[in-house]
Amino acid sequence: MSRLLKHTFILLLSLLLLPFSLLFANESLKIAGWDVYADPENTTKTIGYESFEKKYGVSIEFTPLSNLDDIIEAAESEIDYDLFIISNEGIAVLHDMGVVKALNLKKIPQYHSLHPNLKYTKWGQFNSKVYAIPWAWGPTGLMYDTDNVDVMNSWEALWDEKYKGKVAMWNDISMIWTTALTLGYKNVYSLTKTQLESVKKKLFEFNSLHAYYYKGGGEEIDLVKKGKILIYNSWYDPSSRLKSMGKNFKMIIPKEGAVGMFDSYMISINTNKEELSHHYINHQITPDIQQRMLRLTGLAPSNIETLALLKPEEIRALHLDDPEYFNQMTLWDHMPRKNLYEKVLEEVRKDYEAKLKRRK
């Protein structure tokens, strides 16, 4: 072996033996995504950041966002994000915009432990290449205070005069989907003009109940904490977090059904930290981190091996013992006439503001 070849071999071997904390020392990963995944104690970090930062010697920088449009805007902004956490209906949007890159599954060994019912191949693959790795999933269910609210099984609870002034909805396009289900419509992503008119009238009625709308970022938790709301719709189940605050809430899927989603990690086309980004995704879908995510958010894990770390009551509460539960949700999807939905939202918000002013 020549001296040059020998030195090259020794150098490569020494690099391979370097601890991760030295390989990526002082680098940072910039992530944008749904605000529910911010660490409760440090919202500029993601759930699970501590062990990743310690292992790799890097810093996680998280931008928490509360709606899909904001995440899409972040992906096409001039900020050099490395990763995005986006709901399933946004995967194709980012792919078609050309702002994300295909993943190397050899660098994400936990991928092979993902729950088969997630149908991630349908949503996350394009031209036989994988672009998205599922991280969490769950329905947009009905949350209610079990100490102060009668047992219920219908979305109509949000319109019950008995709880006037104590109800809330997420200030997002999903309020249209929830209201459509309440009215018995199943085609929530392709409503007719007549159906949308009925949805609008129903939301005007909701506005008359001195209702609240929350934007995310923990606003709903704050409203509960202050005793301002007893019933609301939520795309994750914070009942365990609320219990630690002395509030006993429960999430149900009403008899009319519920929409649902799964959130995934995608890597930005602009990242220069592709290797580190793959390590991060693999870390986030390990059973230990998935368990922590579940207990903080009330969302279900994507890695099926996480079940071995859960209590029987946790498995039952999230229906993880029911292989068909995931398929019962109407997954968030593309709306061919989203402009009509946005027009309804605009009118509902204007009506709410007008009624709010009259109350003051």
Please name the defining characteristics of this protein.
single chain, 360 residues, alpha/beta, D-Maltodextrin-Binding Protein, domain 2, 2 domains, 8-stranded mixed sheet, 5-stranded mixed sheet, 38% helix, 20% strand
Summarize the structure in words.
- By secondary structure, the protein is α/β, with parallel strands linked by helices.
- It folds into 2 domains: 12-138 and 261-323, D-Maltodextrin-Binding Protein, domain 2, CATH 3.40.190.10; 141-257 and 332-359, 3-Layer(aba) Sandwich (D-Maltodextrin-Binding Protein, domain 2), CATH 3.40.190.
- Helices cover 38% and strands 20% of the residues.
- The chain contains 14 helices and 17 strands.
- The protein has helices at 3-17, 20-23, 49-56, 68-75, 88-97, 120-124, 174-182, 193-207, 219-225, 239-243, 274-284, 287-297, 312-317, 338-359, and strands at residues 28-34, 38-39, 42-46, 59-65, 83-87, 100-101, 125-126, 129-130, 133-139, 141-145, 167-170, 212-214, 231-234, 249-252, 259-268, 300-301, 330-331.
- Strands 1, 4, 5, 6, 9, 15, 16 and 17 form an 8-stranded mixed β-sheet that branches. Strands 12-11-13-10-14 form a 5-stranded mixed β-sheet.
- The radius of gyration is 22 Å and the shape is globular.
- The mean pLDDT is 92.
> CATH H-level name of the largest domain... which superfamily?
Periplasmic binding protein-like II
Strand fraction: 15-25%
Report the structural category.
Answer: alpha/beta
What's the CATH class label of the largest domain?
Answer: Alpha Beta
The CATH topology of the largest domain comes to D-Maltodextrin-Binding Protein, domain 2
Q: Name the shape in a single word.
A: globular
What is the makeup of the main sheet? Answer: 8 strands, mixed
Through-space gap between termini: 86 Å
Percent of residues in helices comes to: 25-40%
Q: Radius of gyration in whole Å, from Cα?
A: 22 Å
User: Which CATH architecture of the largest domain would you pick?
Assistant: 3-Layer(aba) Sandwich
**Any low-confidence stretches, pLDDT <50, length ≥5?**
none
What's the β-strand tally? Answer: 17
- Calculate the mean pLDDT score and round it: 92
Number of helices: 14
Integer count of domains? 2
